[in-house]
Specification:
The protein is mostly helical. The protein has one domain: Winged helix-like DNA-binding domain superfamily/Winged helix DNA-binding domain (Arc Repressor Mutant, subunit A), CATH 1.10.10.10. About 60% of the residues lie in helices and about 5% in strands. The chain contains 7 helices and 2 strands. Strand 1 and strand 2 form a beta hairpin.
Length: about 140
């Protein structure tokens, strides 16, 4: 089913516009909240993905987070420069780069759950539990997960 046509498409009323605007607002607010940890919201995603063992290589992280490999490389460079993660070549396949948090990276990642929920909860404060779960369900459906 097509929900948009040439006749009814209005930029500011489109789902893409609203999702992008919500994303931009969350990024600005999350980045401000994470400033004391000296990481960005995108770097937070990397640290938590490694902590939760959702990914172990740059390619896997790119897939999990929906970030292109070029941007991923630049973000990993920054995290490595901050001594939050380290890269190492796989012993089985030298083409594969494995990622691991450093002790400092683990400490920073452990502080994220003390900060991030406040940013998200501020935007969800007027949602009932049912509405919150429905939003999550619809977003998963939108992402085709």
């Amino acid at each position: 089913m097509n929900h948009y046509s040439r006749d009814n498409f209005r930029l500011t009323q489109s789902i893409g516009f609203m999702i992008n605007k919500a994303r931009n607002i969350l990024i600005v607010e999350m980045d401000a909240a994470l400033k004391e940890l000296d990481i960005s919201s995108q770097q937070m995603g990397i640290l938590l993905s490694l902590t939760l063992e959702l990914a172990a290589t740059p390619f896997e992280l790119s897939k999990v987070l929906g970030i292109d490999t070029g941007l991923m490389t630049r973000m990993l460079d920054k995290l490595e420069a901050k001594e939050l993660l380290q890269r190492s070549r796989s012993l089985e396949d030298r083409r594969v780069v494995n990622l691991a948090l450093t002790e400092k990276g683990e400490k920073v990642a452990a502080q994220i759950p003390e900060i991030a929920p406040d940013v998200l909860n501020a935007h969800l404060k007027n949602f009932s539990k049912v509405e919150f779960e429905e939003l999550r369900r619809l977003l998963r459906k939108f992402l085709d997960e």
